[in-house]
Amino acid sequence: AKSGGRNRLVAFVPEMTLAAQRRAQLEADLRRAIEQEALLPYYQPQFDCRTGAMVGVEALLRWPHPERGFVSPGEFIPVAEDTGLIVELGRWVLRRACADVAAWDRQGAPPLTVAVNVSARQLKEPDFLGDVLAALHTSGLAPGRLELELTESLLMDDVEGALTFMHAVRVAGVRLSIDDFGTGYSSLAYLQSFPINQLKVDRKFVQSLPVAGHTIATAVIALARGFGLAVIAEGVERPEQLEWLRAAGCDHAQGFLLGMPMPAAQLLALATRPATP
Ligand code: C2E
Ligand code: CA
Ligand code: CA
Ligand code: CA
């Protein structure tokens, strides 16, 4: 197959299924997009439920594909994980996120935290901690402003390795949160030994509030309280969900109701906008 041109070919063997072809093409395109730094970090704001103040953002990758429009991370992150491209991509997001938040500071934004998603594959990299420290050092961002989002399955995949990593990260002053909490299989016993700062209630449970989902949401909030952890709800779309969460004592909230994921410039404008009474 030839390579390099816009219509770079992937060596399709005839017996490849259509799905396999699409995936091979996606992989080739992704490789190229990473080389050309064509992906973008978007930022979704996070708010304090009590005061309503913006307190942080979550970095979410976006890929504007030349022919297919925006490709969803749900589609390209698994490809990046399978191919190992996530290591380079993850390092890049980490650097961009730290640099962007440090730049917003200088432009008058309140001191926001920035949450960055971490894949299992990245955690297995021997020098992932070095990447984290380099991103902080280069940007000048205080470690306590960076939060790494880990999923339960990632933690349970290699508990010993994850624990070693988590302790090192906490010693460096970086914050840790467990994403999609309640959807994985981490046992409560492990939860007690994880040096984490925050639990993130999965969107699935938030979606059905206040009619259903409240049993699990209540339990997660109580669990966080008991362990002295903060708790954030993701996927808040309706005012009644936010009301319920506020009354239940949830600390932070994130979702389309409060703010969509947006480009850095737009987030900065939102964060520096004078408060409207
Ligand atoms: P996640 O970490 O659970 O991220 C939350 C997802 O929910 C995001 O989808 C976000 O856009 C979406 N979301 C936020 N508020 C709402 C809401 O109110 N309603 C609904 N229905 N959805 C909402 P997105 O951006 O498509 O990302 C999907 C997943 O891709 C993420 O799930 C995360 O697992 C992964 N991902 C995204 N960026 C990165 C990254 O930089 N690194 C890694 N390793 N994974 C990433
Ligand atoms: Ca996340
Ligand atoms: Ca999540
Ligand atoms: Ca998820």
From TrEMBL:
Signal peptide: none annotated. Residues 23-275 form the EAL domain. This is GGDEF-domain containing protein. It comes from Pseudoduganella armeniaca. The chain holds residues 327 to 603 of 606 of the full protein.
